[in-house]
Design a protein that fits this description.
Blueprint: H1 2-31, H2 33-41, H3 44-63, H4 70-92, E1 94-101, E2 105-111, E3 116-132, E4 139-148, E5 151-156, E6 161-163, E7 166-173, E8 179-186, H5 190-208, H6 215-223, H7 247-257, H8 261-283, H9 290-318, H10 326-344, H11 351-367, H12 383-411, H13 414-450, H14 458-472, H15 485-510
Antiparallel strand pairs: 1-2, 1-8, 2-3, 3-4, 4-5, 6-7, 7-8
Helix pairs in contact: 1-2, 1-3, 1-14, 3-4, 4-5, 5-13, 6-13, 7-9, 8-11, 9-10, 10-11, 10-12, 11-12, 12-13, 12-15, 13-14, 13-15, 14-15
Length: about 525
């Protein structure tokens, strides 16, 4: 009885948290950030719901002896540790702004409530300067040359100063360029606890794939195949690199092929036709002919070459990877879809219709976006950008494939639907781990860039909502209602709405810090 109570309370509290977060993002749109923080995110009820979720979840896990599966237990302990860190930060951290004028020495700052707080050091601004991309008037960095107790120090975007437990971030500047505004953060305990949770989570997510008798391994065994794990080797953007020789001719080629009008139409049409054909074959318990699979693989290879060429040319011309802006990210998602098709189609033939549909859809969006190359905002000029965006987009791509697989799962006989559930399960685990990794890498990046690893920005909030919604799908052993194949497929189809709101809804409607154009 106690087990059932712990389970019911933990999932109910989690559902309430998710609903409150969803509502808060829309309330913020009309009432403002302060209102959303006061009545939702900083509300004692909201904080209590998180606490109840964590405590009852751990109690339930101990009651069913999950400690025998150390990686699974460790993931949940890590998430609880992160919540403890967030609570400690909320209760004890101090933040504010420090305004410096050239030649001026100060030893205090203004906190968020408007009060004056003393600093354990003196700080003097020697010079503030803006660095520009070569040959343009677009800022690439903002830099403050300061002296702290007489010792020289440089503070710039993504380059913070850590002094006596305080962290100073470049936040703004005066219009006459004779003054600099620094963000101040003093969080001696919460930051360390949260980062310890991040580290434990990363280790346990890796360990999970080596753990025996998991739902992931059982699904793999039923499928009688092995999942091919994809690895992407990243190169950080080189925003400060000089413009290479011959770049104008390269850009002319890029401009002539940038809009994927024909590729998206071919990919989307082919994907839909393959999807219908695959459904018909599966209802008759037949397989798609190998000749057709191989022909589609050739087309996927041609599409991959085209996307690789466009992305590579854009990278060469701009000096930045395809990790910011609607056009770049959609083309990257299409590229990832092609890679997955080519890597997995022999093991999972259904990846081809799903992959072509997803690639076509994302190229359609890219064709409606602006392919013009622009320079990155200074805050985006970080190597963590590529890791964060690629992790998130890989997870979104996999979630899209799971949703399309769910549609197919509703159109075929029960036996085949159960097999498709196993396919989705195999895809969901790395997808959820990728969005988890990407979300918390983003939090680390935010902490490095502006001193706050979580600001309840609408994009952050909906990414967390997406993470939690899809995490529920991994708990079929506890939630019997979604262990049934058709219920599972319906859930994953509905869950894709959170991805669509996270990427498109926030950008087009809700706004926030993450609504970067391009």
């Amino acid at each position: 009885m106690r087990q059932r109570s712990f389970k019911f309370i933990s999932f109910s509290a989690l559902a309430a948290v998710v609903v409150m977060m969803m509502a808060a993002t829309f309330v913020e749109k009309f009432k403002g950030t302060d209102f959303a923080l006061r009545y939702f995110y900083h509300n004692p009820v909201f904080i209590a719901l998180w606490a109840v979720t964590a405590i009852c979840s751990l109690a339930y896990l101990f009651s069913v002896k999950t400690w025998k599966a150390p990686a699974t237990m460790g993931i949940h302990i890590a998430l609880s540790l992160m919540l403890v860190g967030a609570l400690v930060t909320h209760l004890t951290a101090r933040t504010g702004v420090l305004h410096l004028r050239a030649g001026e020495t100060v030893s205090s700052y203004e906190d968020d409530s408007g009060g004056t707080m003393d600093l354990p050091f003196d700080i003097t601004l020697d010079e503030f300067a803006i660095e520009y991309y070569p040959g343009t008037h677009a800022p690439s960095d903002f830099r403050s040359e300061v002296r702290v107790d007489g010792e020289a120090c440089t503070i710039s975007m993504n380059n913070i100063a850590k002094i006596s437990g305080y962290r100073l971030y470049q936040a703004d500047y005066d219009e006459d360029l004779q003054g600099s505004i620094l963000a101040v953060s003093h969080d001696p305990w919460g930051n360390g606890i949260t980062y310890a949770g991040y580290l434990l989570l990363a280790l346990c997510m890796i360990g999970f794939f080596f753990q025996k008798d998991t739902a992931f391994r059982r699904a793999l065994k039923r499928l009688s195949t092995a999942l091919v794990l994809l690895a992407a080797f990243l190169l950080p953007g080189t925003a400060h690199a000089a413009t290479p020789d011959g770049v104008s001719s390269v850009q002319q080629i890029y401009d002539s092929i940038a809009r994927p009008m024909v590729p998206f139409m071919v990919s989307l049409t082919l994907g839909i036709c393959l999807f219908i054909f695959s459904c018909i074959m599966m209802t008759q318990e037949k397989k798609v002919p190998k000749g057709l699979q191989n022909a589609c693989a050739v087309l996927a290879g041609v599409l991959l070459l085209y996307l690789t060429l466009v992305i590579a040319l854009r990278w060469v011309v701009s000096g930045n990877g395809p990790f910011a802006g609607s056009y770049s990210v959609m083309m990257l998602t299409a590229w990832l879809s092609c890679v997955m098709m080519l890597a997995l189609y022999r093991k999972f033939p259904l990846i081809q219709p799903l992959g072509f549909i997803l690639a076509g859809f994302t190229m359609l969006i890219a064709s409606r976006s602006n392919p013009t190359i622009t320079n990155l905002m200074p805050v985006l000029n970080s190597p963590l950008l590529s890791i964060h965006v690629l992790s998130m987009m890989m997870s979104y791509t996999l979630f899209g494939l799971v949703a399309l697989n769910g549609v197919m799962g509703l159109l075929v006989p029960e036996k085949i639907s159960a097999t498709l559930k196993d396919v989705s399960t195999v895809i969901l685990y790395p997808a959820v781990f990728l969005i988890t990794f990407g979300t918390f890498i983003g939090a680390v990046w935010a902490n490095i860039s502006w001193g706050n690893y979580w600001a309840w920005d609408p994009k952050e909030t909906w990414a967390l909502v997406t993470l939690l919604v899809y995490s529920v799908a991994l708990h079929g052993d506890s939630l019997k209602i979604i262990s049934k194949p058709r219920n599972f497929h319906i859930y994953t189809i509905l869950a894709i709405l959170t991805v669509l709101i996270t990427y498109f809804g926030v950008n087009l409607v809700l706004g926030g810090m993450h609504s970067y154009g391009g």
